[in-house]
Amino acid sequence: MTMYCCRHCFSGDPTISWKIHQESRRKGTCDYCGSPDEPLLEPVALQSYFEPFGDIYEPSAADGRVLSEWLGVDWGLFETMPHEASLRLVSDIFDDPGLLGRLFTVKAGAGADLLELWNGFRESIKHSNRFFVDKIDQLDEALPLLESSDVPERLFRARIQTSDLAYPLSEMGAPPKDICGNGRANPAGIPYLYLASHANVAISEVRPSPGDKVTVATFAKPERSLTLIDLRRPKSQLSPFSGEHPLHELRKQLSLLENLGRELSAPVVPRLAQLEYLPSQYLCEQIKNIGFDGVIYNSSLSSEGWNYAIFNPSGFQATECRTVLISGITVEAKPYSNAEASQP
Q1: What is the pLDDT of residues 224-236, one digit of tens each?
Q2: CB count, 10 Å around CB of 286?
Q3: DSSP letters for 90-136
Q4: How far apart (Å, rounded) are the C-alpha atoms in residues 342 and 320?
Q5: Which helix (H) or strand (E) segment is 324 a member of?
Q6: What pTM was estimated for this model as a whole?
Q7: List of residues 6+ apart from 52 with CB closer than 8 A
Q8: How many CA atoms lie within 13 A of 129 on its CB side?
């Protein structure tokens, strides 16, 4: 029986989605991921898009991963699918039942050496050289791949009040230089404007306690166009099927960019912030020096939205303020091992 796949099987990759939309002659429920009422295509019609992965992965006689796992880990494909379904889909794309159990490894030269370079740098800037560090030239090449102008019509900033009175609009922008402390993106004395896509994200970022009163300001999208680096989900933004970049180079850059996104979003204990923020501060300084206006990154304290660090706050105006009372805090916990302490 012929089986059919849909765009959701490939996590909405834009190139594959376009291919399926253009060539599909039927609509229905996907045989692999179960998405209903979708344009469908036979997997083998996508074979030419997947053949270049032969430059990255090679069969392994001893250990490794099945090809569908590599494509998921490295490129973010098959996120909505059970393991067995993705395994079968890759096998059907290549029209090769032998792929169901065959293991693969990464070819020499297609490894994550840029990630290793960054990990060495982050340790150096924290514990060895603070001001005379080796510049990572590859950042200049990798970062522009994530250029974005995605700014919502409204953004939010929060401040914990020191009294019952809300802060005025004039005090809800970036702090003055002489009182600006270290932030996730900015060094002390260099103020950036931190904004959030949702009010609850902005509130979470100031780490309030129950009983605190918090001023929440709404900012209007500026009239001037912004050029940002979007580090929320690099794998979903860069298609391995577009043909714009050699796959082995793109794989290296993606591993670096994914790690940079985690760098900006990782939870940091406040008492260690001055040291732990150094790598992300360097990263944002590099982004600013390349010529970008700011960076978009995930929140470490809320899953409801994301954050913006704007290097030049001019053009951002607070339009209204309101006070909210923090009635409770939700705490999440997970098992911890000492091995995690060494992870970036």
Answers
A1: 899 999 999 998 8
A2: 17
A3: HHHHTT-GGGGT--EEEPTT-S-HHHHHHHHHHHHHHHT-SSSPPP-
A4: 43
A5: strand 318-325
A6: 0.87
A7: 240, 247
A8: 7
